[in-house]
Amino acid sequence: MNSLIRNNGIRSFNDSLISSVMQNWNEFLPSTHQGPSLNSVGRVPAVDIKETDAEYQVIADLPGISKENIEVSVKEDVLSLTVRSDDEKSEESEGRVIRQERYQGTFMRSFKLNDLVDDQNIQAVYKDGVLSISVPKKEPVQPRKIEVAIN
Question: pTM above 0.70?
Answer without folding.
Answer: no
